[in-house]
Backbone:
């Protein structure tokens, strides 16, 4: 299409000048008629909009308008044709033009109305503005924000931390247009990092590979300084050692930010580029946003896993506690009848029968030990907390272990404070440490080092602090760490190590209850336990137990039980299990007691109301659907204060679960028990009652 002739005053030379100016103008120029048809387009307009020479002429301007805004543009063009006026560049910034390939480009447009030979035209000057520094920066920030939003949606939707560890480096590399992106996570020992995710990884830097946490390594330097680090040029970097592989691959610049979980650095997110000085403030802000998202997601995943694990352990604990309770009732019957059989005149002279009874009695005692371990795991064992000098206990245990363990195992003890005391059950603490030591021995079949360290706890790991809550913030704790140089554990074993009956030992070499009893003891002692292990890296078990400050109280003198059960003692027995009741009656009769027996608390109370004489009430705590033994004891204490009370139970937490149980003044006899245990408990209950009466 030909260009309209210039006004008559123009000379051929002037027309040539006009055409030259039109073609050489640095902005795109379009000459458009009143119908919106493009009559002329200069080369810059064709370049900017992606058309070949001459292709724009004859098209309408509508082809340059994005589909979404085309109706608005038609209305605007109609209004402009009725009142044309010059509009300079910069009055409307947010304009978009559609290129031939469909891509949209940000532009500024100036409009100039023109009349040639009485016909209206418009000259549109179009300038691409995406190359402007301020616009490029705004577009880049918008792009970064979109990537962060994309990761935010993924972090909300997924519960799989491994997916995030794969996606975050990929998104970082894509958004920043870099050659490599890596996530380093710190091991729980804080001695090493491992590569948890990445793109563009170098040789020797595959997923799962490890590198030491030292200030002279790239991630170790970030951890040591606790802040983001920018590397302008690896070739001149002197703050840490640059791995040769970085330089061999042509990597030049880098940006790294710490991953922070509840105030503690847990890893590093790093990006690398082959271009020098590649990263600025916007890139730093973007990478920090990604690291915050990743750290928060890892924290949520860890918290959910810890909660699920705690719920599983609590469910297993309730189950094992219930099993142990019922099993203890059965063992009470078995042990009681075995003891009666052992003393039966018909078997006294039968050596073979005596051997069989003795073997059965030993087996029942092992069964009682087994239920004791189940109760320890389920936190339903009866503890006797005292002030224990932890250093002395560990030294004593270490001396015993040096004599009994494999001589190829070296035992080291380090205590940072003398007289460091915990409020725990000394026997159970020693048993817990022994269980851990035995596991360590089995993990070092060729020998190694077993270390005990004990010190006041200064700072808690985040997961322990979260578990202990207010106790960690306002209480004092002792930290006992048992470390071995053994085989370590895989992640799958580590997750199940505290479950009852779980063991990796050969059949017959362990019950799988050792670590579960340690777990139950620590939890019941209002403490926490932490396991740090990896295949080939040994194992560290750390116990956090409440510390006692100040001078220890002298222990109560040992109760003198030599006087025995008074002959003719009037005992009221309340037990809902008929077989158990029968065994206990036999025991009481053999101790010279006079007995009245009931299967529920209500008729026992009615008998006392009717005037029955009684010196001691021996009652189970769980009495079926009726009144509990603790309530029966409370009413007897209130109405007949001279009557002694002795409680018995398959698991001792029943006493603590009762209202006001923490201050319960009654003696508790654990099932299963032998006749001698019952006799001692009766004497102690009578003494306690006399002491209480004298004090009042």
Residues:
């Amino acid at each position: 299409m030909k260009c309209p002739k210039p006004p008559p005053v123009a000379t051929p030379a002037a027309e040539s000048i006009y055409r030259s100016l039109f073609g050489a103008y640095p902005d795109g120029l379009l000459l458009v008629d009143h119908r919106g048809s493009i009559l002329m387009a200069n080369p810059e307009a064709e370049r900017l909009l992606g058309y070949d020479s001459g292709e724009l002429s004859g098209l309408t301007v509508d082809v340059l308008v994005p589909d979404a805004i085309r109706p608005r543009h038609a209305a605007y063009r109609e209004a402009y044709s009725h009142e044309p006026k010059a509009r300079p560049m910069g009055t409307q910034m947010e304009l978009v033009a559609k290129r031939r390939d469909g891509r949209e480009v940000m532009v500024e447009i100036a409009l100039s109305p023109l009349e040639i030979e009485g016909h209206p035209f418009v000259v549109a000057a179009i300038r691409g503005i995406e190359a402007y520094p301020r616009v490029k920066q705004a577009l880049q920030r918008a792009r970064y924000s979109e990537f962060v939003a994309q990761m935010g949606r993924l972090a909300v939707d997924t519960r799989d931390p491994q997916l995030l560890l794969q996606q975050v480096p990929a998104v970082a590399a894509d958004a920043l247009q870099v050659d490599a992106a890596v996530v380093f996570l710190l091991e729980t020992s804080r001695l090493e990092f491992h590569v948890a995710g990445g793109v563009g990884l170098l040789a020797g830097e595959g997923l799962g590979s490890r590198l030491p946490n030292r200030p002279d390594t790239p991630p170790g330097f970030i951890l040591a300084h606790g802040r983001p680090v920018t590397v302008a040029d690896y070739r001149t970097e002197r703050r840490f050692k640059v791995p040769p592989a970085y330089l061999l691959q042509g990597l030049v610049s880098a940006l790294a930010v710490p991953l922070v979980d509840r105030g503690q650095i847990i890893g590093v997110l790093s990006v690398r580029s082959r271009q020098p000085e590649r990263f600025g403030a916007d890139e730093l802000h973007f990478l920090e946003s990604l690291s915050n998202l990743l750290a928060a997601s890892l924290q949520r995943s860890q918290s959910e896993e810890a909660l699920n694990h705690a719920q599983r352990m609590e469910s297993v604990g309730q189950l094992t506690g219930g099993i142990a309770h019922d099993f203890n009732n059965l063992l009470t019957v078995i042990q009681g009848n075995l003891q009666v059989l052992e003393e039966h005149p018909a078997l006294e002279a039968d050596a073979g029968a005596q051997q069989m009874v003795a073997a059965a009695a030993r087996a029942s005692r092992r069964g009682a030990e087994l239920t004791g371990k189940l109760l320890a795991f389920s936190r339903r064992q009866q503890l006797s907390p005292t002030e224990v000098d932890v250093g002395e206990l560990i030294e004593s245990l270490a001396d015993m272990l040096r004599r009994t363990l494999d001589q190829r195992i070296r035992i080291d003890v380090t205590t940072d404070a003398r007289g460091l005391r915990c409020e725990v059950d000394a026997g159970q603490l020693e048993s817990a440490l022994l269980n851990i030591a035995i596991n360590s021995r089995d993990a070092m079949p060729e020998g190694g080092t077993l270390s005990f360290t004990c010190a006041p706890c200064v700072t808690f790991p985040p997961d322990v602090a979260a578990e202990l809550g207010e106790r960690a913030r306002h209480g004092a704790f002792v930290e006992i760490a048992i470390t071995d140089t053994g085989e370590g554990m895989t992640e799958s074993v580590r997750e199940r190590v505290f479950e009852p009956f779980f063991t990796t030992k050969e059949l017959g070499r362990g019950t799988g209850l050792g670590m579960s009893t340690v777990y139950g003891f620590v939890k019941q002692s209002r403490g926490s336990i932490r396991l740090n292990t990896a295949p080939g890296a040994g194992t560290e078990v750390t116990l956090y137990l409440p510390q006692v400050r100040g001078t220890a109280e002298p222990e109560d003198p040992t109760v003198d039980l030599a006087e025995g059960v008074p002959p003719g003692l009037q005992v009221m027995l309340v037990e809902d299990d008929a077989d158990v009741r029968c065994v206990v009656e036999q025991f009481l009769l053999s101790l010279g007691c006079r007995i009245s027996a009931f299967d529920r608390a209500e008729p026992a109370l009615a008998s006392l109301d009717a005037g029955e004489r009684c010196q001691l009430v021996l009652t189970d705590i769980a009495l079926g659907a009726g009144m509990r033994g603790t309530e029966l004891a409370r009413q007897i204490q209130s109405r007949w204060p001279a009557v002694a009370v002795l409680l018995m139970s398959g698991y001792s937490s029943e006493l603590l679960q009762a209202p006001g149980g923490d201050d319960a003044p009654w003696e508790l006899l654990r099932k299963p028990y032998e006749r001698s245990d019952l006799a001692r408990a009766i004497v102690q209950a009578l003494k306690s009652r006399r002491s209480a009466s004298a004090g009042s």
